[in-house]
Structures are given as C-alpha cells and as structure tokens.
Sequence to fold (227 residues):
Amino acid sequence: DLEQPPAMSFIDLSHDFADGMPGFSLRREGEVRQFTASIRPFVTHRDSAPFYDGQASFEITEISFQTSIGTYLDSPRHRWPDRRDIAGLTLDEVILPGLCVTVADARPDERIGLSRLDLPEDLAGKAVLIRFGWDIHWATPAYDHYPFIDADVIAALRDRGAKLLGVDTPNADSRSELSRPAHTVLLGQDILIVENLCDLGRLPATGFRFFCVPIKAVGAAAMTIRA
Fold:
C-alpha cells in the first residue's frame, strides 16, 4: 500500500467578529471616541417569506465597521497615502510560508529588542508572527498595555527579507511613539502587517503556511481578515 500523506489541518488565528466587539479609540478635540462593529439583519426570514409565498425565506445581513477592527491586515496605504491599497495586494503576498517566534514573559508596555527573539538570519519571503501571548487579555483593559518591537527588530525584518509581520497585540507600534516606526519602515518596504492575531501558541515554529486574504476592497487602507 502507498503511504498516505498526513492530513492537512487548519488553525484559526482570528478573533470572532461580532456586534459590539472590541475596537479602537480615537482622540479628537479632547474627546475619546470608541469604535466597534455593528451587525444586524437587513432583511429577516420573516420579512422575506411572503415574497416566496411561504415556500422559502432568506436573510441578508448588514455590517458596519471601520477596517482596523478585529484581526486585520494593513496595506501600504494605511501609512503612505500614495501607496497600494488592499485591492492592490496580490494573493502571493497574503499566502506565505510562516515562522512563529515566541517572546517569553513579555510585560505590559515593554519594548522588545532583537536579543529577546530567536529570529533566523534568513527570513526571505516569510510571514513572521510574533507571539507575545497578549491575546489572553482580549476585551480587557490590560490588552491596551501591550509589548511592542524595538527598532532593531524592525530593521532585521526589513533587512532579512520578511514579507509580513503579524502580532497578537492591537498594534505593532507603541502608541507613545508618534512616528510609528514599524508601520513607517515595514509598510514603506511593502512588508505587510497583521494585528490582533490570537492562538499563536497552537502553531509550530516553522513548517506552516499563513493565510490572511482580505476582500478585494478598492480604496481600503486596511481590512479585517480570517487568518
């Protein structure tokens, strides 16, 4: 008998996308506004049944959200106004061989340098997912006090050929760094960024393929994904 190949398995790395889910906040004119997603029926089964003489019914859903909510992908346009949007990305940029690197014992608001990461010298073509373990704080105040990568990690991702950075925190950058170095450098080099990942602890360090395919939204700078 021919030996059968091992069964393929899939690991969901996305937070649930739900009505009223955790989102992001913006400060404008001294006011802090909190954003989330709204999901509700647009046409219900009860509404539609009379159109089919009671023989069938359908539901259509209406969803309203900003594109940087949930587990989402940043295109270069998110940082650079004249660069490619989500629709301009190619499929081979959002389906990549993956590498998962764990940062042990990361602390709130900690700056993580290259010495804390077991990062290979050759990252050519890789999606590099950094596991801080911060997804355990999802939907709590602690989630907003997350660790983040330092400039030497950003430079290593760029110089060693990475194609994507993913993190299980709300931001690859510290919110206190107004220049946003990770977004500035990486998106400036067409290295994409995925934020709000979860369950990275279920991944092996290597030997997997990472999918982060968004809808082909023209003009969108970022987009929620199923990772």
